[in-house]
Amino acid sequence: MQTTTAILLAAGQGTRMKSALPKVMHRMCGLPIVHFGVQASLDAGCGDVIVVVGHGRELVVDYLGRAFPGDRVRTVVQERQRGTGDAARVGLGAVRRDAVRALILNGDVPLLRGDELRAVADALDDPNTRPSTPSALAFATCVVGDATGYGRVLRKGGRVVEIREHRDLRTDDERAVSEINAGIYAANVTFLIEAVAALAPNNAQEELYLTDVVAFASNAGERIATVALGAEVLAGVNDRDQLAQVEASMQARLIRAWRVAGATVREGARLEAGVIVEPDAIIESGAVLRGSTHVEGGATVDVGCVLTNVHVGAGAIVKPYSVATDSRIGARAHVGPFAHLRPESDLGEEAHVGNFVETKKTTLGRGAKANHLAYLGDGIIGDGANIGAGTIFCNYDGAGKHTTTIEAGVFIGSDSQIVAPVTIGRDAYVATGTTVTRDVPPEALAIGRTAQQNKEGYAPRLRARFKAARDAKNK
Ligand code: UD1
Ligand code: CA
What CATH number has the domain spanning 240-446? Predict the structure, then answer.
């Protein structure tokens, strides 16, 4: 397959999506549709993948450059969308000189896998013919219940003679044909270049149809091989309802694979395609794992959590309705319920971040705890430190952000404000309700609050005064 070049047709606008975004850039399980066809082509073993782009090409080119760095995946521009035949011509114009065969596929069929693509390429060499005469062309077909909109495979005496597009069908017999063209073709590059050069826009849409290479091969008396594929892998995306259906199939496939690999993924969890869940991880219902999120073995992500690019260490517990982004959660750490880890939060092993705690660009050392109601921004918190309820790191002075450093073993009493930049030394103690504005030396007690006064017997007098005022007003 190294000498086989894949050509992915992805220049169309996708009018039926009714979107400013080109169709192949719509996301499915977290990745643009175009990603799947490219990945399947690489998985099939193609040495070179050419993506024909057109509509919204800047977005497609930019994405593919980032997702598939290197020169194995390239793009080529089809200036005007004159049909799949024209798109194939543009793609063929970019194949490398050492390419022997090409595999051409529509860019909007994301459930296809490498195995199926390889089966179409392999069908060119029919092992049942002796001596083995390769077919000029192979393509994938499928028998469907409702063939509306698809190109029909027309046969004579069992031999394929033509693919005719839905709009170009002439008789009821033709319309009744349930074998459709799946849009995946394999052939020798030289044959394809010749066949595509011969295409003419003699059809209802006045486009160049790639499907007409089938009649070209048939008329030349060439052998044509077909490979029957299951309808479930050929579902195309033409509108947003189909996108939702295809996404549901892909989601089910991803979750099944993680379950079989040993993770518990409850019904109703959603995992994007780039996510990893290790054996014995538990992903509860309603959890949404996005981007490059990785959940290590024995960790639990509980109901309703939304994790985007988060690494969850072994045995950690992320309790319900926690939201975390671009962060790390150490092994056996506890997070939530209702915690918010904003980007660059890094929780050490066995750290605890409890309900209504927000962290941002903050590291917590091993076993450090912030169990309730706190804002911890731009902080460095040492091992075993304890941050009391209601603590605020005042990291922003309206102009710049400043760092709060809390060394190991520090105890911060509840309802304290720590005004950055400031350092609280090792094992120091900050009394409840203190506003810390200066560094605290190691092992010191920082206390900053007005002294309490008790006025004996004052409460009844106060109540009487308030009552008199109320009565006077109500008169
Ligand atoms: C095509 C086939 C049809 C088949 C169906 C399977 C043709 C003429 N018809 O129809 O037989 O049953 O796929 O799904 O090929 N594209 C370009 N440039 C263009 C036109 C299209 O790159 O000028 C790309 C599109 O972005 C898309 C793919 O080619 O990814 C298929 O085009 P689309 O218009 O969706 O073809 P279908 O009508 O689905
Ligand atoms: Ca299509």
Answer: 2.160.10.10
